[in-house]
Design brief:
Elements lengths: L2 H19 L4 E5 L4 E6 H54 L3 H8 L9
Antiparallel strand pairs: 1-2
Amino acid sequence: MPFKLIGTLILLVLVTIFAGFNINNTCNINFIFREFKNVPIFFSLVVSFVAGVFVTLPFTFGKKKNKAEKDEKSAEDKKLKKLKKKNKKAEEKVAISPDELNAALDGHKLFSDE
């Protein structure tokens, strides 16, 4: 069995034991228009925790998406720089001065005056 699963099961057993021992501790919870009486404190803790998880979930997934986009953009930028460097080297190899071009075309029959 994976260690994460075993750890999760042990944690759930401990939480259940904690809930069982504290089920008799109650409190009143007041909302603006409603009051809940004799609510177990453990239940209010669990509800608060779950509400916090739901509030933070969009931020957690948003960061992963932005990070993935940044990594993708970074990879594209690296490829673009590499291609520009190759292009510049190729242009330097192909580059020919006007004098060299005239010398190469002097004896060609397309450009002769005959």
